[in-house]
């Protein structure tokens, strides 16, 4: 029984490590190409090496880190040529996710999305920096994916949205209307909460297309 409790604790720590390291990589707090030091990560997160190693296995699968024989493990580089491939996937799956969220969202999902909708109203307020806006963007996307109640679709889109966000972070200083991009989620959330699947799908596709265009203009 004690061994089971230990294993559950390890899983919990591994999940916590995974989420923390993932978001550092996504937000470029760990810079592209930077070496990954297991011991330092463990110390900063307050966990041992085993949870960190479990987290890194997942992050390698998600293309956020890469390991080279005899060299070590590094944060993956952000390659702008990946934008077209990532957008190709998102243009098909984001509308599907939005439509399914509109059809399947529970009362709790709708409450969470409504709360995020209210927060979006302050996206353009003075003092909101780019990091805050990108965290809000991630929250909105992840809440929509959760509302699909399809774990396979959710996992796929979280991975691709993470990769897209890394590209966004790389060019954030060149983007003229970041707040406007984030605020676009308002009508999308309204469509999902009201159960309008067709409108939600249309707005989701438009949002992804607008993101790709904005990045290409900033290059």
Task: Tell me briefly what this model is.
The protein has 219 residues and is mostly helical.
Characteristics:
219 residues; mainly alpha; two-stranded antiparallel sheet; 73% helix
Percentage of residues assigned to helices: over 70%
List the uncertain runs: 1-10
Looking at the structure, what is the overall shape?
globular
| DSSP helical segment count | 10
Query: Please, what is the oligomeric state?
Result: single chain
Distance between the first and last residues' Cα: 56 Å
Count every beta strand, where a strand is a DSSP E run of 2 or more residues: 2
Percentage of β-strand residues:
under 5%
Q: How do the strands of the widest beta sheet line up side by side?
A: 1-2
Mean pLDDT over all positions: 89
Please state the structural category: mainly alpha
SSE run: HHHEEHHHHHHH
Mind telling me the C-alpha Rg? Answer: 18 Å
Q: How would a textbook summarize the main sheet?
A: 2 strands, antiparallel
Description of the molecule:
The protein is mainly alpha-helical and 219 residues long. It is 73% helix and 4% strand. It contains ten helices and two strands; from the N terminus they run αααββααααααα. The protein has helices at 2-26, 38-45, 49-61, 82-104, 107-120, 130-147, 151-171, 178-183, 185-193, 197-218; strands at residues 65-68, 72-75. A two-stranded antiparallel ribbon has the order 1-2. α1 (2-26) packs across α3 (49-61). The longest helix has 25 residues, at 2-26. The chain is globular.
